[in-house]
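Aim 2 progress update. The chain analyzed this quarter is reproduced below.
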Amino acid sequence: MVSQGSSPSLLEALSSDFLACKICLEQLRAPKTLPCLHTYCQDCLAQLADGGHLRCPECRETVPVPPAGVAAFKTNFFVNGLLDLVRARAGGDLRAGKPACALCPLMGGAGTGGPATARCLDCADDLCQACADGHRCTRQTHTHRVVDLVGYRAGWYDEEARERQAAQCPQHPGEALRFLCQPCSQLLCRECRLDPHLDHPCLPLAEAVRARRPGLEELLAGVDNNLAELESARMVEKEALARLREQAARVGTQVEEVAEGVLRALLAQKQEVLGQLRAHVEAAEEAARERLGELEGREQVARAAAAFARRVLSLGREAEILSLEGAIAQRLRQLQGCPWMPGPAPCLLPQLELHPGLLDKNCHLLRLSFEEQQPQKDSGKGEAESQGGDETQSCREDGAKSERQGGIQPQNRDGAQTPKENRAQTPQEDGAQTLKEDRAKTPQEDGAQTPKEGRAQTPLEDEGAQTPRGSRSNKKRKFKGRLKSISREPSPAPGLNLEGSGLLPRPIFSCSFPTRMPGDKRSPRITGLCPFGPREILVADEQNRALKRFSLSGDYRGAVPVPEGCSPCSVAALQGAVAFSAGARLYLISPDGEVQWRRALSLSQASHAVAAMPSGDRVAVSVSGHVEVYNMEGSLATRFIPGGKANRGLRALVFLTTSPQGNFVGSDWQQNSVVVCDGLGQVIGEYRGPGLHGCQPGSVSVDKKGYIFLTLREVNKVVILDPKGSLLGDFLTAYHGLEKPRVTTMVDGRHLVVSLSNGTIHVFRVRPSDS
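Predicted structure tokens:
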């Protein structure tokens, strides 16, 4: 049974939209109730009736229309009573003196009554003061309740008026419904009671309600129990959905961690193998050069002796020939006796060995499995206990929970699935294409090289392939998402955060190439990049003190000579000249290396960012919290402080080609933000939000539409911002092969060039959002 406290109040029923039709949204008129207990206007239901049926607009239940039409649906007397109460409360305007007495015209015979000041709750009539005083002086009305009209209209007597309210018979106006015909289950007035229900057993309404209320309350209690069960089931569904989302987020994090670990291992192997290849080629070239030098020396000696002997034989006299004959013969015999050709040098040609899984198109590096969720009370216990002792130790508490709810399934060293579930094995798991026990299991991507021996151990090898079988259970906790098989297909890159930003540019990988040249004595350390001619870039290699030219496809085009002892840091290309910073100086040189001018900069800053203005005839450099702009003659054209604050330290600088006002973007290491300024140094946008991941902002580049590309070296990302400095999302991540990105530049507004800390350069084509 519903408690009194949970029952809806009369005030709530009168003030809510309970009395409004859900079809026309107006107050109900001739309310009819459907079998689903939803009430609508009779005319509104008539418009919905179609082919003898209608569908409830709220619960969508199909209801048959009675043969007599929608008028045969049950009249909702409950709603009618509430509507009568609402209409009575809303009738007339007391302040204008409009309400009139309902009894005065009956007694006077003509005209209207005096102004009403009271209301009889039993008769539902408005009364003047005189009629109100005499209303209770008759035998028939002495028990009636007469109240103040102002208080009635204010709702003070709603409950009492509702108790005294009587439903009116629709067939006999003015007659109240007083009886219930039990065989017909029909409400009757006194006129209806006489015919045709005269012989039917009838009960007064109060007695009939007392007899039928317990049955209704019992049914209502059963529905309340169902509602409680539905509420409980709804909460269980919500909890299950929350667990699903939580587990999906956890598995997504696992996938990212595992994929990043694999990519790091793959890139490490790539660099190691390429290093081995370079070392082998350099050693072979050095040995070949020594042998070539020795052969060239012997060839020169033999040619000189042969030429001398020919001259003597052709030009010498008899006495001269005979006098030199002994020496010439001795030398020629000596040369003939020498071993001209040394033994064949060993030629070890490098060969690429691929993991067998790379050749299988059906194998997958990562795979999901889905299991039915278990009750929450058992979630802390691992259900998937293995049958062997090793596997039992490895099923730790959160590992088992994540596996039950759809995590990445573990895999043992032999490639077979753990006893979590019985499923068909892949060809790799069957052992046909797996590596041997003594060989490291390292997934490869797109033909990367895998040396047999002498390479660094990857995290996955530390975890499974080279770990004794008895101790593998303690290693499994490192990656909950285990690798099931090897796949040639790279993991998909994560999508951009497009909330509120619409479509954004997307990266398309173009090529990758190293910047180390044969003459370099050290590994490259790229500190500056800039466009240099059509589809060409200029690379500042600070470690090797060189400005190198490369095409976008990686072809080496030579170098721009720099003054002796200079280590170029930041670089920018101007009209027919190159500007770069080195130490505490700014240089402007011609493409053939001639120094046109140099300027001393502040010693308080370790490095100075250099950028060419869009006009190409001026160069800007960051110096101790401000920016100085020089013209082609080396004169200081202007000097301004970004935002009027001298406590900024710009470590990267680039001008917006889309802005005729000379707007520029800078990475502020002191404020740990990205700042966008106009040509006068006024800040028009700044970002220092959580999208920087707590990292110092690095190199910045701008495409032809004004999008800003910011390098975050510590997290291996390049993020994208709009022209006003608002973060839009990630553009490049570790999925794109970024390993400690250092410097970027934009070529032709369409190609983003990214240099890594190891000297490798990646080129990405920026695909516009409207293409």
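The domain at 11-91 is CATH 3.30.40.10 (Herpes Virus-1). The radius of gyration is 47 Å. These observations will guide the mutagenesis experiments scheduled for the next reporting period.
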